[in-house]
């Protein structure tokens, strides 16, 4: 499972948890403006917006899971298994054919906002072309967001859907309209203490703090994580400094963290939160921590040569760094 979320203080933040039972070999990867992108059907793009994100680099090609570009647009792919169905290559010449593995660079390379992404999506055919035999087609759906809003993109048997995403959150199945519908169930929840509307004549008491959110699901299913992270995000308050915003963002996604042992996916195989990311999309900074390394690490794209042509790659730090005080 995975969860993505947006957050806005003075700056715009975008990030995700990546939950899985193994890692593909993930690296924080900066693609500078002049890295030549070879698109499967759309030819070579020698210049584009620079981007930073988490990727598996295969044969020198950045296969992004999530990223932001230098214009403040963010995009993340999350599993959508059993629902994702890609399109056939359109030979008419009127459409942009984009393979699922190049969707993030295609959008982030040329769009500065969600509005521009919508225009690009209108002309796009999303194909299921695999990257290679070893890295077959991933069944995903995506969130695309900027400081003014978010959309969800789902390619299904009945076509490519683009939904307004008013909560700025995405998890996994079911399709997005059903996730949003299920939120109706929780509209009575509140960070405030409840009033006894249940039976005023019965002497019911608020015996504990936090009772306004009783009913918020605590399990790891994608519908429960969607409701939980939406509640936490919508009610989140923090100062607007960088440290306060980033810290709060990690707390928001911390509400759906997956601990080893709690989600068995096969005999003796457990899904865990491999990493959690938080991008400052205005400043081009990728913050992250990992399952074995809770300290927040950061890579700033602006410290790289963004006019270059070579990828800059940083392997994930996977060890706990304990700050001894005596
Ligand atoms: C496994 C990841 C999704 C994690 C997730 O959503 N877990 C939820 C589990 S569940 O279904 O809800 O149970 C996805 C997110 C991005 C994916 C990667 C990116 O799409 C980039 C390439 C795409 C290639 O086609 C396959 C390898 C790959 C490198 C993908 C491997 C894998 O499918 C990734 C890493």
Question: What does this protein look like?
Answer:
The chain has five helices and 20 strands. Helix content is 16%, strand content 35%. The strands form five sheets. Strands 13-12-11-8-7-6-3-20 form an eight-stranded antiparallel sheet. A six-stranded antiparallel sheet has the order 14-1-2-17-18-19, covered by helices on one side. The protein has 326 residues and is of the alpha+beta class. Bound molecules: taurocholic acid (TCH). Residues 1-2, 18-20, 24, 56, 63, 65, 77-79, 81, 101, 130-131, 135, 137-138, 140, 172, 222 line the site of taurocholic acid. Taurocholic acid is lined by residues 1-2, 18-20, 24, 56, 63, 65, 77-79, 81, 101, 130-131, 135, 137-138, 140, 172, 222.
Distance between the termini: 39 Å
* Rg (C-alpha, Å): 20 Å
Give the DSSP E fraction (strand runs of 2 or more residues): 25-35%
Task: Strand order, main sheet: write it out.
Answer: 13-12-11-8-7-6-3-20
Hetero groups in this structure are:
taurocholic acid
* Secondary-structure element pattern, one letter each: EEEEEEEEEHHEEEEEHHHEEEEEE
Let me know the largest β-sheet. 8 strands, antiparallel
Given helix and strand content, the structural type is alpha+beta
What's the pLDDT, averaged over the residues?
97
The global form is globular
Task: Say what oligomer this is.
Answer: single chain
Q: Counting H and I runs of at least 4 residues, what is the number of helices?
A: 5
Helix content: 10-25%
Tell how many strands the DSSP assignment holds. Answer: 20
Which consecutive residue ranges, at least 5 long each, have pLDDT under 50?
Answer: none
């Amino acid at each position: 499972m995975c969860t993505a979320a947006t957050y806005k203080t003075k700056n715009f933040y975008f990030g995700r948890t990546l939950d899985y039972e193994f890692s593909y070999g993930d690296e924080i990867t900066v693609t500078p403006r002049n890295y030549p992108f070879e698109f499967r059907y759309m030819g070579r793009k020698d210049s584009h917006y620079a981007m930073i994100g988490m990727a598996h680099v295969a044969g020198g090609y950045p296969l992004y899971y999530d990223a932001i570009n230098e214009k403040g647009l963010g995009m993340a792919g999350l599993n959508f298994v059993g629902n994702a169905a890609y399109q056939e290559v359109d030979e008419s010449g009127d459409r942009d054919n984009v393979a699922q593995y190049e969707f993030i660079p295609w959008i982030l390379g040329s769009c500065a906002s969600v509005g521009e992404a919508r225009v690009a999506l209108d002309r796009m055919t999303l194909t299921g072309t695999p990257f290679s035999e070893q890295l077959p087609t991933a069944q995903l759906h995506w969130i695309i967001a900027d400081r003014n809003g978010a959309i969800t993109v789902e390619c299904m048997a009945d076509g490519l859907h683009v939904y307004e995403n008013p909560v700025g959150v995405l998890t996994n199945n079911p399709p997005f309209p059903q996730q949003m519908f299920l939120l109706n169930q929780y509209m009575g929840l509140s960070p405030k203490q409840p009033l006894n509307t249940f039976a005023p004549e019965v002497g019911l008491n608020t015996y504990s703090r936090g009772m306004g959110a009783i009913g918020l699901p605590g399990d790891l299913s994608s519908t429960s994580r969607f409701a939980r992270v939406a509640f936490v995000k919508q009610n989140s308050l923090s100062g607007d400094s960088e440290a306060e915003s980033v810290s709060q963002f990690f707390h928001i996604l911390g509400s759906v963290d997956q601990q080893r042992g709690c989600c068995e996916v096969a005999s003796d195989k457990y899904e865990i939160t491999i990493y959690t990311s938080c991008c400052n999309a205005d400043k081009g900074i990728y913050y992250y921590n990992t399952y074995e390394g809770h300290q927040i690490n950061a890579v700033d794209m602006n410290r790289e040569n963004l006019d270059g042509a070579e990828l800059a790659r940083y392997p994930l730090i996977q060890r706990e760094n304990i700050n001894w005080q005596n």
